Amino acid sequence: MTRSFLRPLIGAGLALLLGTGAGMGVRPAAALSVETVTSPLGLTAYLAADQTLPIVSMTVMIPAGSTLDPAGKEGLATLMTRLLDEGAGDLDSQAFQQRLEDLAIDLSFDAGRDTLTVRLRTTTDTLDEAFGLLGLALTHPRFDADALERMRAATLASLRQQAGDPNALAQKAWFARVFPDHPYGHDDEGREETVRALTQDDVRAFAAAHLSRADLSIGVAGAIDASHLAPLLDRTFGPLPDTQAPVVPEATPRLDGSTTVVPFDVPQSTAFLGQPGLKRSDPDWNAAFVVNHILGGGGFSSRLMDEVREKRGLTYGVWSALYPYQKAGLWMAGIASQNARLPEALAVMKAEWARMASDGPTAQERADALTYLTGAWPLRFTSTESVAGMLASMRFYNLPADYIDTRNAALEALTLDDLRRVAKRLLDPARLTTVIVGKPDGTP
Amino acid sequence: MLRLRLSRRRPGSGPGARLRALSGATSGRWPAAVGLTLGLVAHPGPAPAQVFNPETFTLGNGLQVVVLPDHRAPVVHQMVWYKVGAADEPPGKTGLAHLLEHLMFKGTKSIPPGEFSRRIARNGGQDNAFTGDDYTAYYQSIARDRLELVMGMEADRMAHLRLSEDDFQTEREVVREERRQRTDTDPSALLGERLGQILWGTHPYHNPVIGWDDDLTRLTRADALDFYAHYYAPNNAVLIIAGDVDVARVRALAEKTFGAVAARPTPERRRPGTLPPAADVVVTMHHPQVHQPELSRLYVAPSRSADPQGFAPALAVLADLLGGGSTSRLYRALVVDQPLAVSVAAWYRTDALDFGTFTLGAVPHEGVETTALARALDDQIQRLLNEGVSDDEVARARHRLTAGLIYARDSLSEGARVLGSALSTGGSIDTVETWPDRIRAVTPDQVMAAARAVLGQRDHAVTGLLLPAVAALAPSPSASEPPASGDRP
């Protein structure tokens, strides 16, 4: 039981730069210096070297997410990704896992919509073995038939679990409705019928086509220096082909302001809402980020929490967030409330949406948001894993190496007029498109 | 996507995953939902130690203070743990400890309603709180130069809570929504509540931390203030400060802030020592929201602080060798060798004042009856009890539980969570600091003695089968076929 609530996040690897209450953060320049490391083969990483603990963490984002699933093979990127630690080279699944355990190396692979995210953590005495195992997994995955069947069965079980989970149902239904003709419309895990049909050949073909070193976003933190890292990068990723990722079409979300109810016999309704947002590269990103913090991103200090939860007791959790996918920007929100009061809760949310669109934040809200966002910046950088994750995201979003030093000043430079202009430009309650899972009052 | 319930192979590499594995509190990931209803979600695992090397002192008013310096970033993490939780609630007032946790953010004579978290945020800090069976904890993360501010605010609300009737009523509705969100719309959580009732009988661990809804509707502002007055006192709390500080500064600030709060007598925590009569119970829940069955088995076990025979470290090793990742016994037997399950889990809850819990779980493979999976699980346990464990698998489990100890320090908050959990459940700093050495010393004989004591006692266990609604079973042609592998042992 906690006072907090979980916010749904969509897409692995996106959360880091998305401001999920904690804000986007890095510690001040004085404590963390980021250098750009370029390997002989031309692989580039951001590195924050820190010798305090004998630990190295690395995050790598590969543009091989579920948007690349061929039509009819939805779930392929996820299944391939789940097989990457199921055996490589001479090591079958059990041997590969045993090796990681013996060396106390943490290695995980997660597929999202835009990217496949790799996370590696090791102590310095097993550094070469850790990078070696990752390299082996990416360059010589076995994709054994028995492992494939295990991961297929696990994926099907996960799909069945989600079929009873109101939050998962609401998210899936929302994306399916809003992106009927784009890969963003399907869930990372695919659908039962597509997952059943995937073959070893499918998995091998996906890996061969999309596991490339052409466009890796690499962040490294901990006890390693540039001269040691550069050759390790080449040894690990050099054997991958240098093919460019295919172009994913721009998405045009169908955000028509409609409300869809998915009938579900539960005492509480879950709603997922969204309207057009913006991409991370948009010049108004920072302003929108601050506006969102004030609207619904800032936890207990946000307007939505104050109005819906604190004043009216209508929910345990209400939130809003920017989702800057590569091919579509979205401004999302969500809530769960007892069936009888969900309509009231949604009405309050929409009223706040409209109020922010028309008036923008107050001077006090701007000041409070900025002291929070800038002050909480260092809290994001208290582990090598979180630093590595941020650095990889900076590479992914084409942010400069000095972003950590300049980010707070960029936020502080935003005027109240900037925030009001961007709130007016973007926020539009008429386009808030809603999916409700439950039995909200007013529906049969 | 967040995948809440599928426990898949080795403990993930997410923050803290290894720590939980190291601690033996969990081995393998398990449904958040099941954990929640067992009161587990709110119980951060105890982690390993001799990495933390904390310093400690006690103020004149009885407040124990623990300091964990970490100078990598100019930030600090404060936690205040009260030695009171859901198991201390008066009869008929379930949910009171957790509701009070929410109400502690409503203000004091110097902090207006709604201002507590805002003031933290305006200073660049983050704050939250959680409640378990045996403790209630509050925390903030903030820049080091704001440490005095947050210490002052915690000290203030330790003694000066103000609570209006309106705020009480509104927050109670928030908690009821929390219950709907985390329990009433989640069949795993609903089943978990039933399992807890049966496992614990009359012991107060049988109530869900969030409380029964009927009780929640009857709680009053006076109940909350009464509970607060009884239990919230410096002599019934532990203060932990981690981060970019040293012990001298913490001591000075603690004297200045918490030192001003007067000690008060607090009730002794008296819990019934008896468990329900011996019975081997299977609870079957058919629920229309269920499309993927689940199996769970809970055993009463010693906790680290109530462990006269010294079984705790061996139980941690046992949980790991049974379900700690994809080379574990149960994963190999039930997922790899025969496809009866898609995931398995075993974990041991170490930190509890009265009893620990040893839990096994499995998600059946398509076409495998849950009862068949339960039989296969029993066969595996019987085999372990009959044939014993090998030196090698014990050595590997010990290694897995201790090899990544250094990772425990790669976090601002982990040490504070681990120590606070132990100190508020009858343990000491030593409990945490000597844990890795105790794990390293576990022998196969000790594992077997612990296994016989816990897994051999089916009359102090309960099995849960979560199944689709009965009506949903009939029409599907594939479901009416004989299960592909369900009859295999």
UniProtKB/TrEMBL annotation, chain A:
<dbReference type="Pfam" id="PF00675">
    <property type="entry name" value="Peptidase_M16"/>
</dbReference>
<dbReference type="InterPro" id="IPR011249">
    <property type="entry name" value="Metalloenz_LuxS/M16"/>
</dbReference>
<dbReference type="InterPro" id="IPR007863">
    <property type="entry name" value="Peptidase_M16_C"/>
</dbReference>
<dbReference type="Pfam" id="PF05193">
    <property type="entry name" value="Peptidase_M16_C"/>
</dbReference>
<protein>
    <submittedName>
        <fullName>Peptidase M16</fullName>
    </submittedName>
</protein>
<feature type="domain" description="Peptidase M16 N-terminal">
    <location>
        <begin position="49"/>
        <end position="176"/>
    </location>
</feature>
<feature type="domain" description="Peptidase M16 C-terminal">
    <location>
        <begin position="198"/>
        <end position="370"/>
    </location>
</feature>
<dbReference type="InterPro" id="IPR050361">
    <property type="entry name" value="MPP/UQCRC_Complex"/>
</dbReference>
<dbReference type="GO" id="GO:0046872">
    <property type="term" value="F:metal ion binding"/>
</dbReference>
<dbReference type="InterPro" id="IPR011765">
    <property type="entry name" value="Pept_M16_N"/>
</dbReference>
